[in-house]
Amino acid sequence: MIKVKNLTKKFGEFTAVDDISFNVEKAEIFGFLGPNGAGKSTTIKMLTTLLHPTSGEIEVNGINPLHHQDKVRESFGIVFQDPSLDEELTAFENMNFHAVLYKVPADVRKTRIEELLNFVELWEKKDEFVKNYSGGMKRRLEIARGFLHHPKIIFLDEPTLGLDPQTRNYMWNYINDLNKKEQTTVFFTTHYMEEADRVADRIAIIDHGKIVASGTPEQLKAQTGKDNLEDAFLELTGRKIREEEASGIDRMRMHSKMWRRRR
Amino acid sequence: MSTIYILWLRQIKRYLRSRSRIIGSLGQPILFLVALGFGFGPIFQKAGQGNYIEFLAPGIIAMSILFTAIFSGVEMIWDRQFGFLKETLVAPVSRLNIMIGRVFGGATAAVFQGIIVLLISFIAGFRINSVLLILFSIIFMILISLLFTALGTAIASMLEDFQGFQLIMSFLVMPLFFLSGALFPLTGLPEAMKIVAAVDPLSYGVDGLRFALTGSSHFGVGIDFVVLILITFLLLVAGSFLFSRIEV
């Protein structure tokens, strides 16, 4: 479903993604793990037509995103790591905007929006402006929006960051369901190793832009001789804390710095 | 079609909800009408050019459209900074349609702004011969709005943040306005000024608008119309090319 070969992305001097290759099969739940700044989001951006790779080959749903951008965009959905809502619109308007862009049929649009907003417990506040939402509410709205249409592939970039266990649990059930019923391929990143261990069929670990290990969670544990994924992860990527802090604000700052540096 | 519509609708909603922006952007045209209109009125009269308010009002309407339209286009930088741009860029619809929806939405807001200023200019003493002329003038308002929203969007496609905004105001928007013949007649100018005015697309917008409302024209209304259509088309093509290349 996703084929990546010798993919590289450089921002000036800095190599964010360094010659990585991997495949994701149809209907697979694939975990893409790594410390902050390892190159996870950059990889997702290249897979979803938001960034041009410096070199390498990509295929998403059998289509090359470099040459057929519009076509490849029809096959995936994405929940971004950082905010991507229109704060001047209400929650309902944000959902409706998305539904129209993703061609959700008009007759199911309203029921699905209601169902999903209920699922993240925002239906009561659907007519409030997003700018008045708390951080957690915005995150829940983004999740709900990501599931509004049912794509062949769904990219989830740290979807559970800042969610409470209830919502997180509900979200993974929903994804599992989608994966079973509609054969949806799931590509996700997370910092919660226990979560990755539980839901992922296969995992790749990326560090400093290179893939350092890949396989099923069991294989990774066996390979490192550890009995849980967290220890296996630390064994593979080292214990050193990365420059980039884990908080959302810092990540956004880092992000905007990267922007400025790039041009 | 639905893509264009939903993006248009979003721009309209955002415009109508920013009341302070609407009111704030009326301050400048009112000031110009009053200060320049009444200030230069007597001199203009003595020079044998007739009623200055009558000459000035179409120029001020064009000015407010120019500012609103450019700002609507450049507003896209906000979307980039708030992350919303990504949401539209990964959607399975052509970026050309996204760009067109945005431009139509921004242009509609700018036309609306132009009509408000037209109504205000009536209070300042501007008179037209027939109410039907308003409809005629709206054609030119639409053209000016489309042209400069497309220009603003094209510029915003190349900018990362608002740091370059001041530059655009000082070296693009202000010259476009002041050199356009919005404030003074283009006849009898030094040769260099004439050339500058002739390459300024707003000159044709002001001229067309002035013809629609008062019946006097410098270039000829046909030329105004053709030039505006051509430049709008070129800017839409250039804008959609730049827009399609955005990376976030």
Describe the structure.
The complex is a heterodimer of chains A (263) and B (248). Chain A is α/β, with parallel strands linked by helices and 263 residues long. Chain A has a single domain (2-75, 151-262), classed as P-loop containing nucleotide triphosphate hydrolases (Rossmann fold). Chain A has helices spanning 40-47, 69-73, 91-101, 106-119, 135-146, 165-182, 193-199, 217-224, 229-237, 248-262, and strands at residues 2-11, 14-24, 29-33, 55-60, 76-79, 153-157, 185-189, 202-207, 210-215. In chain A, the strands form two sheets. A six-stranded mixed sheet of chain A has the order 5-6-7-3-8-9, sandwiched between helices. In chain A, helix 8 (217-224) packs across helix 9 (229-237). Chain A is globular. With 248 residues, chain B is an all-alpha fold. Chain B is 79% helix and 0% strand. Chain B has helices at 2-17, 19-46, 52-74, 76-82, 84-89, 95-123, 132-158, 165-178, 191-199, 201-214, 221-244. The radius of gyration of chain B is 18 Å and the shape is globular. The A-B interface holds A 45, 48-52, 70, 73-76, 78, 80, 82-89, 93, 96-98, 100-103, 256, 259-260, 263 and B 2-3, 5-6, 10, 13-14, 17-18, 79, 81-84, 86-95, 160-161, 247-248.
Question: Layout of SSEs?
Answer:
The complex is a heterodimer of chains A (263) and B (248).
Chain A: E1 2-11, E2 14-24, E3 29-33, H1 40-47, E4 55-60, H2 69-73, E5 76-79, H3 91-101, H4 106-119, H5 135-146, E6 153-157, H6 165-182, E7 185-189, H7 193-199, E8 202-207, E9 210-215, H8 217-224, H9 229-237, H10 248-262
Parallel strand pairs in A: 3-7, 3-8, 5-6, 6-7
Antiparallel strand pairs in A: 1-2, 1-4, 8-9
Chain B: H1 2-17, H2 19-46, H3 52-74, H4 76-82, H5 84-89, H6 95-123, H7 132-158, H8 165-178, H9 191-199, H10 201-214, H11 221-244
